[in-house]
Amino acid sequence: MDLVPLKLVTIVAESILEKKLVEEIKRLGAKGYTIVPARGEGSRGVRSLDWEGQNIRLETIVPEEVALRILARLQEAYFPHYAVIAYVENVFVVRGEKYI
C-alpha cells in the first residue's frame, strides 16, 4: 500500500464563519473538508451564552503549499478579528490523489 504524505489543517472557529471559511479553503486549493461542532476552553475562556453560537472544527487534508496558503489567509483576515485557531499536522493517506 502506498501512503502519500500530506498536511492536515485543523481550524477551530466561531460557527458564524463556517460558510466563509469553507469558501476560502476551497478557493485556496482544498478539495474537501470535514466540519464537526467543537467546544472547549482557551485564552478567551469558555463561551457561556447560547447567543454567542458554537464553535466548529474544520479539517482539511491538503498539500503543503495549500496548507501554507490557508494559514496565511487566516492570519491576514481572521486571526485579528475572530476567535480562530489553526494548526497543521503531518499525515499519511491512502488514495492521495483525492487530495491533490
Give me some keywords for this one.
single chain; 100 residues; alpha+beta; 2 helices; 24% helix; 33% strand
Write the layout of secondary structure elements.
Elements lengths: L3 E11 L3 H10 L6 E5 L16 E8 L1 H14 L7 E9 L7
Antiparallel strand pairs: 1-3, 1-4, 2-3
Strand content: 25-35%
Q: How many whole angstroms does the radius of gyration measure?
A: 14 Å
Q: Stretches where pLDDT falls below 50 for ≥5 residues? A: none
Q: Helix coverage percent of residues?
A: 10-25%
Lateral strand order in the biggest sheet: 2-3-1-4
What's the short version?
By secondary structure, the protein is α+β, with helices and mostly antiparallel strands. The chain has two helices and four strands.
How would you describe this protein?
Helices cover about 25% and strands about 35% of the residues. The longest helix has 14 residues, at about 65-75. The chain has 2 helices and 4 strands. The model has no long low-confidence stretch (mean pLDDT about 90). The chain has helices spanning about 20-25, 65-75; strands at about 5-15, 35-40, 55-60, 85-95. It is α+β, with helices and mostly antiparallel strands. It has a 4-stranded antiparallel beta sheet with strand order 2-3-1-4, with helices on one face.
